[in-house]
Structures
1.
Amino acid sequence: MVIPMGEQVPLVKAVGLYKAFEGVDVLKNASLDLLPGEIHALVGENGAGKSTLARIIGGVHTPRAGTVQVNGRTVHFHRPCDAIAQGIALIHQEPLTFPDLSVAENIFIGRQPRRHGRIDWNAVHREAAEILESLGVKIDPRAKVRGLSIADQQMVEMASALSQHAKILLMDETTAALTPSEVERLFGILRQLRDRGAALAFIGHRLEEIFEICDRITVLRDGEIVGQRLTKETSIDEILRLMVGRPLAALFAKDVKHAIGSIALETRRLTCAGQFSDITLQVRAGEVVGLAGLVGAGRTEVARAIFGIEKIDAGEIRIGGQAVQVAGPRGAMKKGLALVPEERQRHGLLMPMSVWQNTTLAIVDRLARFGWRRDAMARDVARIGVKRLDVKLRGIDQPIRELSGGNQQKVVLSKWLATKPKVMLLDEPTRGIDISAKAEVHRLVSELAAEGMAVLMISSDLLEVLAMSDRILVMREGRIVAEFPREEATAERVIAAATGQVLRE
Amino acid sequence: MNEVLATGRRTVPRWMATPESITAALLVVAFGVSAAFVPRFLDAAYLLDRSSLYMEVGLMALAMTFVIVAGHIDLSCASILALVGTSIATLHVKLGVPLLPLVFLAPLLGALLGGINGVIVAQLGLPSLVVTLATMALYRGLAQVLLGDHSVSLPAWFTGIERVAIAGTLLPVPLVLFLGLAVALGLVLHKTVFGTWVFAMGTNAEAARYSGVPVAQVTISVFVMSGVFSAMAAMIMISRLGVARYDHALGLELDVITAVVLGGASIFGGRGTVTGSVLALFLIAVLQTGMGVANVKAEYQATASGALLIVAVLMGNCFARFRKWTASKGEGSCSGS
Amino acid sequence: MFRKLTLLLFLVTGTTSCQKREAASNPGTTSVAAAASGPVRVVYIPKNTGNPYFNGVVAGLEKGCKELGAEFFTTGPANPDATSQIPFIKDQVQRGVNVICISPNSSDALNQVFDDARTRGIKVVTVNTDLVGNESHRDAAVYPCDFDTLGASQIELLGSLIHYEGRFAILSSTTDAPDQNYWIQGMKEALKNSKYTRMELVDIVYGDDKPQKSRTEAEGLLTKYPDLRAILAPTSVGIEQAAKAVEAAGVYPGGANARGRGVVVTGLGTPNQLRRYIKDNIITAVALWSPPDEGYVSAYVAVGLATDKITAQTGNSFDVPGFGRRGFGKNNLVIAGPPLIFTKDNIDQYNF
Amino acid sequence: MNNRWRLVEVRELPTLALWVLICAVTALVQPKFLTAGVFRSILLWIPLLVVVAMGEMMVMLTRGVDVSVGSMMGLAGMAVGIALRDHPGIGVYGAMVLGIALGATLGAVNGLLIAYGNVPAIVATLGTLGAYRGLVHIVSRGVQVDEYNLPRELGRWSIDGPFGQTLVPWVVVFAILAAAGTLLFLRFTRVGRDIYAIGGNPEAAWLRGIPVRRVTFLVYVLSGLGSGLAGVLYASRFGTINPAAIGSGFELIAISAVVVGGVSVFGGSGTVAGVVLGCLLLGTISTALTVLNIADAWQGTTYGLVILVAVIFDHWMGTRFRKA
């Protein structure tokens, strides 16, 4: 489909961008135009390449091939400051703040207003206050950022981007942590900017939001651009279809035929100050419980608390009907828990080490005799894991960093399967992995449940949650706010519960 | 330098670029050059005798390899040596405690001092650099408080362990002890569960914790090890010198760290071998011995040692970049086809 | 492989060029080839390099060895730690020297290395500092002057400067420096003499021969004893810092803040170091023996022992040109000469 | 309330309290502690430390460490001494410029290795600690420069001040200027703020377009510069420049002062006032130990304890704020 461009010259024109990380292509031949006076949405599943595309334009990554033009001139960004100099502001997924500096400084760092060659602090504070005022947030510009909520930090970053008077603004999932009223306020600002002729790119997951604010939507899938639509000419269904690339029915769904057993994991009024409170949930053997909610709702923290990483202030955890004290991940492991963490590279893997070492890290002591490692046995375990999950590699001695994201995730899963757990906590198990690996993971989860394992699955991928869960719990602002059995769960109801909106049916 | 590296790029096989092989090659050449050009260098009795000067550093370097591979650093090891040495000597000479049981008590004292480091680092999550910098001053200060500027002499039967040779050979006891412990610790680091945990922790402490590695215990253990080995080094040093003083091994932590880093360990953790540290220790010993017999002045030796440390790390970085460069080339050609 | 070889070559050339430079800076040193019948080879190992005192000793040794046709060179550690001299001794033994002259950093930690050297026929002569209590581990010792009477002569010098009246403190080096303690003991003995009854020793502090520490201690004395009449510092680092302290505080005799007749500083120090203070009237008089003379006598002892012309035995004596006969006293101790006293009038005659 | 003019932050209050406590206890035990002489002694003790600690502070703010400061100070001081001895024509101010420039050059070598050579700061500066100290011995040929080799004027800096021979000699003025300069630099220039930002969140600093390498390079140059100035001041204060003595072990004292002064061991926070206070505290402790006749042996112990207490206290304060 050809979309009329009108007479406008794009502010940013990216042509044929390629990018690969650790040998995995994350962006293939991506081209994008950002027009002045337009809000342009980039949508796609996790790992589709949206962030990478934005980061190339923002100077964070250098593409392996392709060019970026700004105002019709080809530019070569080697570092973020090159892009900033061209009037491009990029707001990152996670707020990038300096905890010990004041809010005003966080907004103006590197660009503080000066007078007579020295920083004019009065101007810094005054201008910061003005920008925050325009965003409608009540944050003291002199306060330190340490201690602000994620949403406030996100607002500080937004303020920083606005203070640059950037002509090009790229927002990477900026609204994930914001409340609906904050989102509304933000959208007001974005419309103003658009009307002043700025080009905005908006990456998001909530399609309703995107349809509300964006003029044009580009859909990415597996690193490629698969479609571009004007918002007024398309529908959510069409965009969803483009994102997933197949009819929704083809998504792997959990096999619900087998019986669900007794309670394997239970928490009672679990509370962790500042993170979550009063979490009471049960997961039965053979059951997959989905934990849905917005980013920052406290889901990851609940999983970490159960696994003994986060300290619990109140409440209890029961495993197999017994109240237990979980002293750290090691203790949790001994009690039959396993956690596949959200941040695979940071928390799940030892990147320079081989596949077999990673696979057997959690059970290296179990495989040992008198403290001596038995590598032959460990390698056998790794081979079994690789085979069961169909990990694609040259050999089990290959360093894990050379594997693709999906295969890395499979190794994390096989590491935890090797511990023979009774309860599996999966935190965003399919984030950033390709479709086939995703299906593989879903098949495995279904298989494990059929074998009688209890699974608690945190996922921001609504389709995944709906397809895989026997029951769905929804968290908002640190509390469980809704529970739906499989039959009653719909996307609309889950979203409504997660965002706290009243749904009229 | 750059030219050398540039021309060498395509000719060096990957295995040769491993840090230990660089150290080994440097050792061979340093030895060869010293033997060829320095008169009276090649004298087994002399070399073995002089090797005793490095055994204290060597013992501490073995444990420091664990500390550094685990992603930490222990600047206090030489101070632990001094404090253990002065404490044991004081207990014996001033309070009349029999020396033999004290020799076995020494590692316990070392373990305690190392354990203090470990607990502060592990439980409070403070950087080991700052914590051990503080205990470096603290332990050395306590030794000074204990003994002032006096030296305490030890009984004749205890002194001179470095002159005792293993029966029928010229090999002095400290050297044999060091080599034996090096083999043992090499096996521990590279073949046991504990060693695996040390590597896992140094590579990515968070991921290791998530994978059930008892990170706190491993942290404390490596510092305790460092303390124990420093205590053993203390016993050898006071036996070798016949006296205990608070300023024994002053500044020796630099030599220890130099040996470990020169042996290819990454100061950020996750990389390093006992073999590398041992080779690096002998490299330092050969260089200093060669320069000493050649009458090179002490100040040139100091400058050379400092430069050697930096050059070793820079070379490591160059190799890493080279490897990355070849890897990216490979990646480029693969996906281009 | 090529890369590594080139690098090693670089290292090697680096090492050899160091050697060359080393040889160039010491023109008196000839090739290192060791021949049994060649000239006597004497090495001197000072406490540490960079200590000006030992540069005087080196000059004297060099002169003496040259006259006697012996080969002389010096090497030493950068820091005066108890153990820092050990590798240097071992290396010199291996290089096959005939005599090791040394100012030992420890009176007991070096015994074993000395024994080793002596079993190989190498003579060990301690210079300036002796192995107190371990004299059997060396062949002979050379003292620059009679240490038995030094303490008394220091008290006499001090007394003459303060008219035998007033409170004074001693600023020493380290708490267990044997010589310092021996002298201080001598001073205390001398103070019992009725001539000094109106002089009172109020404190002994230790500056560890470190400038910062010595300075702090000297300033501490001025604070603690407002009526202090003198600081006696029998150490070259200490006396300079004491002089600086009284200068900075302006309490030297005639100074702006001097109470009464001011604070006198005296003790032991080299003329070069103290020239300015003496010329500025901050210090009136200071004593020291002559380090070059000490080195010169040491050279005669060293070469004489190595060639068996002298036997180290109490009562034996030998000739040193310009010094007359010198003899081995108790414990084979040789005394180089009497102490010198430097004042404004004679200081320009000395350069060490 | 305008907190930008608040000189003392909350973190520094305990340090201040500790300082007052030490002064009080010492004065009670030894009333002579409260005399002008002691005050002067402390004032003369700390300028060297302040000058070095300013540079070390900036390094530690970026999460780095510079353990070569003592050796840089030694090399710069020795070069100044040799220059004044062998070429008196350059004059004391010429020598001062030489010392500072040499210090900055030595710091630049560290900076190059760390910022552009990717050598970890601790390894690079440990290496130069040894190498520079060796160079001190090499350039001096092991011979110290004596007081009489140096022009009078240099020594007078430690005695005379802008108001004559008063309590505030020139070396103190230099230290005050160095501290004030650092304060203004850190507070009123963008680069100064970048230093805090880099330490606070290095990744964010890069993504926000801060030239991380250039700033990192700069802090090591500044650390060298401070050490160079300290070398000049050393020559003035002690007169004798001994290759083994000048600046050796100074890195421990400087790092102690910075840590005690409240600079976070994780980088990103800390104030000039705090570090000056840290210097004052260490100087006071050192002088108090002397005045109280406590054996010098306790000095190391005290420093070690003070650092430990400071970092543990920071941790205790910080646990309430630190994110998981």
2.
Amino acid sequence: MRVRLSALWAAVALAAGLFVLLGYFVQLKAVQDLRLTFLHWAVLLAGAALIVGLVNLVSVHWRKVGLLEEGWIYSAVLILALVITLGLGLFFGPDNAVALFIFSNFQLPVETSLMALLAVSLVVAGFRLVSRRRDLYTLIFLATALFVMVGTAPWPLPGLGTFEVVVRDLRAWISQVWAAGGARGILLGVALGATATGLRVLLGTERPYGG
Amino acid sequence: MSEQRCPMCSRPNPPEAHECWHCGARLTPLDPGGSASGSASQPGSRLGGERQPVPPEQDWLDRIRAESEAAGEPEPDFTAEPVTGELPSWLEEMKPEGSPPEAGEEGGRVSAFKAAGEPGGMEAADESGPPEWLRRIRAREEERAQDTGESGQDWLSGLRGSPGAEPEPEDVSYPPRPGRDMAAPRPAAPESRDLPPERPRERPAAASQEAMPSWLRQAGGQDAPPGQDRAAEQLPPSGSPPTTPPFGLPHVQALIGEGGAGEAPLGGKPEGEVDLPDWMDAASLEGPAEALPAASEGEDSRLAPATLPSWLEAMRPVETFRPVVQIQTEDDQAVESAGPLAGLRGVLIAEPLVAMPRTATVGSMQLAVSERQYAQAELLHRMVEDEEREVQASRRARPQLNFIRWAVAGVLLFATALPVLSGSPRFSLPSLEPRELGSLFTLIDTLPAERPALLVFDYEPGYSGELDAVGEALIEQIMVRGIPIATMTTRPTGSLLAMRVIDRLGPRHDYVPGEEVVHLGYLSGGATAVQLFSLRPREAILQGFDLPEDMQEAGITAWDTPVLRGVTALSDFSLVTVITAGTETARVWAEQAKNYMGQTPLVMVLSAGAEPMVRPYYEAREPRVNGILTGLPAATAYERRMGQEGLAAQRWNAFGTAMLASEFILAAGIAYGLVQWWMARQER
Amino acid sequence: MTTPELIASFLGAIITLMVLSYLFADNPLFRLAIHIFIGSASGYAGAIAWHNVLKPGLVDPLFAVGLRGIAQPSALVTVVLPWILVLVLLLKLSPRTSRYGTLSMALLVGVGAAVVVGGAVSGTLVPQTLASMESLSPASVAPQTGETGLERMINVSLVLLGTITTLLYFRFGQRQSLTGEGETPLAVISGVTIPGPAGLIRAVGKAFIAVTFGVMYAGALSAALVVLVERLQFLRDTLSNLFGALG
Amino acid sequence: MTGSAWQGLAALAVFLGLLLLFAALGRRSPASFRPIPAFEALGRAIERAVEAGQRVHISLGTGSTVGQESAPAFAGLAALSSIARTTSMSDRPVVATTGDAAMAILARDTLRSAYESVGAAERYEPTAGRLLAPTPFSYIAGLPLVLATEEVAVHMLTGSFGVEAALAADFGERENAFVIAGTDDVQSQALFFATAEHPLIGEEVFATGAYLEVGGLHTASLRTQDALRWAIIALILGGTLLSTFGVLR
């Protein structure tokens, strides 16, 4: 029975996927309508999945609080913040003043501070890179990065007009021509890989939904 | 065997060739002793002609193997294995596919090497000086050393530098080139040189144990019941050897799967192959492989016992796989009848082949030679790599790293805070402006003022520190021109970002919410939704965001506001500006939405790193992006054109010192790494 | 600055410092800030999902057609099936009923995979391949930058070389001719291996990748540094406002 | 249908045809692939983690399931399935986290069927596949807690990330975990190149299944990709020539 069911789920995935996929190429109205319908349902399901996810998130932290596990106080704070924001958002809409207040004074500072941490992490990683992975490509990577940074940053020494122009032009050349070539190759490769992955899922040889 | 393949380039060669026709690599191992002596010389005759006599120049281990197979195999079907003999045969036997007879053999042999300390082991040999085979190995080593003039390590480095090795100047911290691209290995002998002779003898055995999880170790190790003779006809198979199911790792049910090994939940494999992921499977080879060097290490130290050390025994994961090493009394042990150990009692044996159910060899036969070669080469590679693995295991604590972090963070924070707090140093604003800036400025300047501009705030709040500064001047220019503005986003928090920016800039230019500016809000569904929006904007977003209260009360949606009243398609906007940090988002708008824009220009305001991905769309013969504004320098130039000092200019000085500090740190890192490398080289 | 604004920015400054304290080590202040953040971000995402997705897509249509209207065939697609799918998905809430929610997930995955394939083929494979076919003729002129002549020719060639070698670098198969992996090196000069043509192509490809990554790393780093600057300026402004208000 | 639609459809048909062809051929003539050091190291790291009773953590990124960015997460799910099966005997089973709720459900489903397939259904814990937080930055912010409290020894990032991914890799480094990271976004790859111990470059992240021997069409996929790689190069070179001589456009 399970075998049949799993085949049924694979068929559902394939059918839904086929119409959505065809919709990219075939402009027939029926196909387009079906595609839009499936996409609409998928967006709805993603929204519903978020509710499931939030319930799970709360339950995981609730359990921590209930069992007074290590760090339960953080979990309690998380639940409190979640409930307050969610409640306000549900009742007063996502554009209410309190939501904006919480966003501006909690979310935004944390996110930008994480970006600031990222700056330090990137510099640390760059510093360690040659010691850690000593090959030609690492050197090319770092040399390029360094050159581009020199070409981007304010010029510390005034009076080197021509030199500055050359450096900035070279920087533009590297980042607009050399990097564009590599980026396109990577993009094409990634697209090949993504297509293969998508097709495997569509064909049902990979069934992440179980069954 | 009709041909042999070159271990270096894998191309076929005539069987009698000694050197590869194509690349000149040596095909047969050097054998200073010429033909092997003694005990293992009549495999052909014992096989009754089923197998061709082993040519004298073949490896000594090959002969042993031939003999053992001849003895153990009731119906030796050597012809069914076309690949046999194309490689040094000792490696052949360590076939990774988990073919049980070979696995057994391998286990047996390895135990023999390991188990000198055991009763009835190789002690006799130890006492009476190095055995013949060991002497031959040494002789060969010396011969090789004279030949190449290199140390033992160098055969490996030679391999690394061989086919396909990328020109890496130094290979210290990279994991070594994986074995698959190595040439097939040279004879066993040189390996012993990898280990310095003064090394404790227990080490390789222990290392091999440590190198893999015990459940894997188990699988490799249990095939070595002591006290069994190698020749199956001398002892019935009903003794101690555990019965091994027809696949490589017999007891690890969890790995093989409920429905039997052949049934892969996610797909099929050729028949007869174990459905254990190869990467795990290959790992199981390491134990035996690593044990080999111990055998030839020298005569004055003791070989490690075959039993596991107690600390290892106590380790996870499961006790059910504990090896049952049953040691028989000396009298019960059979006398070795063949091979270099002939005449000794209690020699650890290869698994009696007759006791082992054989899998059909059809599947593995059909595997191309390459598959084996690579597996075998990988085996070799792993033997060497094991040295590094031990190092890795002890590398866990890295206090030095924390120091680097603190130092870097300190320098960076200091450099950034200096101009923020003290106002100096000051850098002049960039005198040069990017080529594309002028045309962008003109583009905005000539937009029709009666149609609204769409601003897409597609970035996470984390980027607001950068993108607010970069995009501000452009938004101000739009406002200066009095063009109505609509905003939207495909990220949940994007609307709040739009609100913040518009709330800050709008009042400066008397933009009234609902009249000159309106927020469409969040468009759920990511890239797909962008398509839907491009196709039918009014159906994709139904409500607005933060509409004035009177409009909400009147039931007016964003689409009914004066800003958007005339808009039914993307092409009805005067401009679409996407402010984003993500290259994917930018590409989606350029590739998917641009098709529906008609003559409406698409402008990208980008985080600095996204530029190389978007620029091709801008420079294409039919541009899909009509303007690019990226990075702080361009933003300052834009502000200058606008004749104002905005966020970008305010951040310029601190940005300058932060960048200089980063450049300095990166350069120091490169120098530090190179010095380290140079010093390591000098030491070597 | 009004008092509420001052308090708000003070809160922002405190939480900024709490997060930045991670630079020294993981600590309770950092964890506290992170938990507040996760909680509020999750709550806001839930509210958005309700207001922008579920309510307009699920609840409003149901109210629009009413309970009687459900029986109509037109409501099947707009109301009944979406409700069934969502309710089936909600079975995933409990581990016990979880396995009965597969239908919705299968549909979701099918659509997701189709979007992956469709997007990759129609969004990248075809357009990027076509975009690579630039004219090498020195007479051609770039529309935006106006570059032409030798400059144009060199630039187009470089992009072409980068695209092709990078693409080849990723090649997985290793036994055929042009991969570099199974290839005999051209020479080994004093320990340095000179690869054959295939190996050379891979090396060039990897060098292009390194250059691309270097440029992007530099870009991301400079973006992050701007944000770091913004945070420090924010801290300074908050402090000076606070002192201004106090003093 | 427009020209580009035909081109897309043709590309798709060729892709599908080759995929099935190689899947059929695969049984007779197995392919061998170039070694990717990161995957080899991963195998060993997992062994070590199992032996030390530590955890493998797979991050499936923050990309939405209903979007192009789900591709690397699908590849990650294949890896999750394989790793869950091989580490099912470990004291601490593999954990998967994600920033997308639907992907978290898929991670749970994948884990459950993986454990069931090896007869270890009791190893399945619903919390082993979890949504850490629903937005990219909040997800990244939640990672240090998981890495620190769950004794993660192998930190595998296969999913869609933004630039903030570099932090995700760095958090792993701070916990001294083995970090292997791959994603679809080129910029994030660049940052992984700098921050992760074992970066997966370009499409290598999609080869995870094939290199972990998941079976199925994974091997055929790589061969198809290789074949199409040549086709694309031929097209580009041909197109460039035609364009140069003015035949095209």
